[in-house]
Structures are given as structure tokens and as C-alpha cells.
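User: Hi! Is it possible to get a structure for several chains at once, not just one? Here's what I have:
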Amino acid sequence: MYYIGIDVGGTNLVAGLVDTGAHLVSRMSIPADRTKDADGLIQDMIGLTVRLCEEGETRIDRQYDIKAIGIGIPGQVDNRAGTIVKTVNMPLSNTNIRAAFQTVWGAPVFLGNDANCAALGEYWAGAARGCDPAVMVTLGTGVGGGMVSGGRLFDGFAGSGMEVGHMITHAGGRLCTCGNRGCWEQYGSATALIHQTIEAMESHPDSLLWQICGGDLKKVEGRTAFDAASQGDAVASGVLERYREHVAVGLISLVNMLQPEIICIGGGISNASDEMLMNPLRKLVLAGSYDKGNHTRITRATLGNDAGIIGAALLCRSI
Amino acid sequence: MYYIGIDVGGTNLVAGLVDTGAHLVSRMSIPADRTKDADGLIQDMIGLTVRLCEEGETRIDRQYDIKAIGIGIPGQVDNRAGTIVKTVNMPLSNTNIRAAFQTVWGAPVFLGNDANCAALGEYWAGAARGCDPAVMVTLGTGVGGGMVSGGRLFDGFAGSGMEVGHMITHAGGRLCTCGNRGCWEQYGSATALIHQTIEAMESHPDSLLWQICGGDLKKVEGRTAFDAASQGDAVASGVLERYREHVAVGLISLVNMLQPEIICIGGGISNASDEMLMNPLRKLVLAGSYDKGNHTRITRATLGNDAGIIGAALLCRSI
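Assistant: Yes, the chains can be modeled jointly so their relative placement is included. Here is the combined structure:
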């Protein structure tokens, strides 16, 4: 018996076959065709799931061996109705994706937000196995999050809970895309780190940061400050020190509100070295935690992009 | 069949008899004797529960009719061990209160934090009945909170979750008693409003605020600004406008993180008129909510001090 998980991304559509032990046993990927409309994209996903069963490394009888299908969407879903409510970079808003799948598939179809699916993946198969509650935070283009509590996804009364990037940490601060000022993702995301790096470069023309990005501000990435700091650049070290404080402020709020047993950190930023990211973050969060006797473990997520596939596949167990 | 709930406060010890329909059918109260040590206070509580059954309005056979006892503590408890871990203003830290009760009582004894008990009370019998998840926020000396999700108390892996007052909303801001800077309770509590009122008075010697507190800054209370604003004082209105923004910032974070079906607001501040508090707060929170299609209801808590008694009594159903 297997589960199919689909990770819908702006670049690729990825489907994976997950066994009952939460192992990803096979995967298949196609580019997300940006010229297609919702119907075309969904037909691509359906075709991908069929080929995954019939042509993948583990070939199975798709009508008998698939227990459930789960789809992780970069946006807001209504799992009860089977619809995608809103996506930002893909033309999938207001689509009944479940109905489309069920013209081909007999297995039940579950929908989840991609950050929630990543949290579920880390909970079922990654760094957060056995932890309750388990929180996942993704430091990427934005700041995403998800929580599993009592083995179930915690996502509020209408599926939009754990939008941790839109917790307000700096009241009155930077304007966010959501319309509020001072959202955590304006300070703690990779995008924010890039802004902070550029600002520091503009006031420090001698910094090594300029060499690392070839003198071109457009080439500044999330890793640029980490690279320069590891080569001893004091400006970059200062940027990172402030950035870690911004990240820690949100993590402290999560700890004091949710007291999770673990917070797994994923996203591009989480690839930085322990010395430059996780170790100093742990110290800051520990110092700011309200309950000094019971510490939330802060750790790197371990599944990378697979978390979203595994979590989507196991939505049926978790909602 | 009844439950006993005990609300342990710095001023009074209150015990109540709660029926299976979550109604408070009888209550009894004694002053908390500040000269007594932990053992003396606990003996007072035990005596109170015995008298509640034998002498209260509803007399019952205390060994047969009591299903469970719950105790709400202003501090941190370890329900598994039956101990009070830490209290701030009472000498009850590191006390096995369950063991003491069980020398007299056969019924099981449950422990909870007082803010969590208030949330449970509003969930079982007050404004949050039937709401899932339900969040309670208390704007008092500090800012307290609790959440009920799936009918159970959500309090983290070690019982200290939902310390919402120590969510950081103003990074780098006012120093909090917890050691962090910018905790919500430094901006949104009644204590914070008093500070904000005094600051405004110091720069506006003509404000009506001075008359209302008889020219004595020590007489400024949480309600002072509300009283002055309702008499048309512009300075007080300005204080309240900023205060509501501070409260809203934390509520928006709660909505975006937890997406509760309801947030009940209790504590002294919640007694202000709808026009001065709840209506403008609702507008601010609505505008700041990430999910514009599904709104968290923001409402006044309805049970007042009874919430803590009812919630404590029903801890056995909720943890």
C-alpha cells in the first residue's frame, strides 16, 4: 500500500510514492509549464501521478495499491471542498482540483498548504519524528511555517493557521506584502537578508561582500553574507549578527506561544554552517524562552524538498 | 456528579462546585492568608473544598459525588507530577499539591495555569462555547492567554505554552520582566496602558486626565484614559488609539499564527465600552488578518472570574 504526494511548485511539479513507513520510494518531476492554465496544469499533475505508478522505479497497480493522494499547494486550500482558494504565482486559484483528480483516480484526494506539508514530512519522516508539538519554519523567499500537534496538522479553523511569517515582530516597521507593517518575514526571510546585505554594502564600499558578488548588487544572494563572513569580513559578520537576532525574535515568540518540543528550520538559509546559524540561534532562543526549565530543541530540517512530498502524501493520516 | 474547581489568587482562594453541564452551582471564598506557608495555604484550600460540599448551597456527599478536583494556579504547574513548579506572588513553588489533596480526597486532582483555566472556562461555558480553536486573552496586570483546540487545552510539550504576553511584538522595545525586550505585555497590558496614560499626562498638563485622577499620578488606573476619553479629552483619545494599536498587533499575530475561530478578551481592560475598545479592535484585527476570507471572531469574555473556577473544575475533561 502506498500514498502519492505531489509538491506543486512554480518551477516544477513533483510527485512521489511514499510507503506506509513514510519512506519516499520513488519520485518523478516535470517542469511547471507557465503557458498552461489551471486545467492544463492539473492534467499534467494527473498524468504525472499515473506515470509515477506505471513507469516509476516501483511499479504498482495504481487502482489497487494507492491508499490516498495528497497535494501540497503554495497557497491557500479548502480541503473540505477540495478546492485551491488562492495561489500567488500560479493560475490555480478557485479550482476544484479534487474533482479533476477523481475523474481518473478512485483514491481519496487531500489538499494542504506547502509549508504545512513540509512540517508534516519532517514530523513523519524527518528531524521532528516523535516530537509533539512539532513546528517547522522555512526561511526562504518568505517565512513559512507549520505545526503538527497530537499527530495532526494544526492549521486553524479555516486552514490558514501557522502563517508565522505574518506574525508582527517589529510593530510599525517595514511594510509587508500582506499590508501590515513589521511582519517577521520582512526581517527573517532570505529576501530580508538580501536587503540587509545590500544596505550594509551601500554604506561599506570596502567590504568583501562587493567582491563576492562581483561588484553587482543584483547578484547578492542569501548566502553572500555567510560566504563573506566565513572569510573574515566584519561587515558581513555584523549583517549576520543582526539577521540572527531578527530570526531569533520570531523563534522566541513561537517558543513562548506554542512551546513546541522541536522547531525544525528549513529553506535555503538553513544550509548555512552551524557556527554561523544554528549555534548562535540556539543561544539567543534559549536566553529568550519564558520557560527556562524546558527547552524547545532548535534544529535543521533534514528532508529538504522531500519533506513537502512526504507530508502531502501523508495528509490523509494527519487532518 | 460534580467537579470542584479552585481558583488560587494572591487575594482570595475561591472554590466552586460545577455540574456536568459546566454550570457553577455553588461557590465559597476565603482570603489568601499571606502569613501562611505552602502547607498552611494548601490546608486552607482543602478545608474550603470540604466545606463547599458540606455547607455550601448545594450539599453533596463529598466522597461519592465529586468526580474530579481541578486547581488553577497563577504560575507554572507540572500536572503529570502533581506539583506547582513556580508561582510569582505566593509561596507555593516546588509543592506537591496533589499529594496533599489526596490525603483527604479520593477524587483525582488536576492542575492548570490560571490563564489556561480561564480559557477552558470560556470554552466550556462562556463566549467560546463550541469554537475550535478558541483563544482567550486576558488584558490585566500582564497579558495572559490560553487556547483550547479539539476540546483539549493546548499548552505545549511542558505545560508553558500560550504565554502570549511574552510574544515579541516590538523587537528591541521596552524591557520586560522576563528579560526580553518588546514583549506584548509591555504594550498591551493594563499596566502598560497606565504607563502610557502617565506619559501623556506628563506632556499635557491641561488634559482632563489630571482631574480624573485628582492630580495624583499614583491614582492613574487602566480605566482612567477610558473615563477621560468618554468625556471628550483628546489626549486620552490619543492614548487609547495607540494602546488599541498595540493590543491589535498582538491579536493580529495570534490570528495569523493560530487562526482561532474566536478570541475572547478578558481582564479589567475588557470592561471598557464597545465603542472605545472592542469595535475599533475588531476593525484593526480584520484589516491585519492574513486570511481575508475567514475571520476570527473577537469578543468579550463573558464569565469574568468564574471562568477560572469552571475551567479548573473541567481540567479533567480537557487535558
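Chain A has two domains: 2-123+306-318, 130-300. Chain A touches chain B through 51 residues (CB under 8 Å).

User: Great, thank you!
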